[in-house]
Amino acid sequence: MTLRAVAFDYGDTLGDLRVAEQKLLETYADIRRMLEEQAHRDIPEAPELIEKVTVHVMSLVGASYARHELEELDVLALFEQALSGLGLEVPRELVQQIHELEYRAVVSQRTVPPENLEALEQLRARGLKLGLVSNAHFLPALMLEDFDRLGLAQRMDAIVTSSQLGVRKPHPAIFERVLAELGVSPEETVFVGDKVREDIVGPKELGMRAVLTHQFRQEDFAGAAAQPDHVIRSLAELVPYVDGLLREASEVPA
User: Fold this and answer.
1) Is it the case that residue 144 has pLDDT exceeding 60?
2) Chain-wide mean pLDDT for the chain?
């Protein structure tokens, strides 16, 4: 069957997930002042706030992934829980404002390498549709804002996040949503990602080809429930692999 689409994981696939620690610290100084104005009492300094809020929230998210849970978490509820642990009752609108400030600080230094954007352009030039499927508990609007800043939104025909849909990869529903938005079948699609369970096993169980990338992290796939169809060291290596698939399809007798 002819290849019509390529779908991608986001973090550690298209770009790395570095945290802008200094910007986060500066932002939490502002958040501390906001909380003091709301609570009318002293609030822990920024470094302790980061531990009590950001690190606490991420530990809850990490524990959820470790349990292989597929339902996405409510990020604002997580922040409310963390702030409650400090003895603070914070209005939901302020909780959301804090989350937005924190998110924008954390991602402020993230980039997508120009060669990866070029690879996406080369795939689009071959007439392929491109999709993005990301597991993340952050508010969908913030992620879309970031995808736009990074030059990804302009190059994607469909974007689906777990916070938007409510379930994470490898739940079939999140893959089925992006396939439906792209208007393609699993057999017409290659999925590219850095995680074996989420990005290889899940897509292959649905009938997609799956490519494991080692550009930003290297996950061992020995003994996995499904093996990648191909392994690449950079996104640039995806283009000749896709060209090979297109060539094979063109050589199949009608």
Assistant:
1) yes
2) 95
CA 37 – CA 137 distance, rounded (Å): 28
With beta carbons less than 8 A apart as the criterion, state whether 126 and 242 touch: yes
Helix or strand holding residue 248 (H, E): helix 238-251
pTM here is 0.94
Cα torsion 15, 19, 22, 28: sign: positive
Count of C-beta atoms within a 10 Å radius of residue 57 = 19
Q: Is the pLDDT of residue 1 over 80?
A: no
Residue 253, exposed/middle/buried by CB under 10 A (0-12, 13-18, 19+)? Answer: exposed
Predicted local confidence at residue 252, as pLDDT? 63
Under DSSP, the state recorded for 141 is: H
In angstroms, rounded to a whole number, what is the distance separating the alpha carbons of residues 247 and 149?
34
In 3D space, the residue among 170, 129, 190 whose CA is nearest the CA of residue 1 turns out to be 190
The two tokens of residue 100 are 């937005």
> Over the stretch 91-104, which tens digit does the pLDDT of each residue have?
999 999 999 999 99
Q: What is the CA radius of gyration of the chain?
A: 20
Give the tokens for residue 172: 């079939």
Looking up tokens 């529903």 gives 173
Please report the sign of the dihedral spanned by the C-alpha atoms of residue 20, residue 148, residue 98, residue 9: negative
Phi, psi of 133 (to 5 degrees): -130, 115
**By the 8 A CB rule, do 214 and 194 touch?**
yes
**Is residue 211 within 8 Å of 238, Cβ to Cβ?**
yes
Q: Which residues contact 244 (CB under 8 A, 6 or more apart)?
A: none
- CB 116, CB 10: distance < 8 Å: no
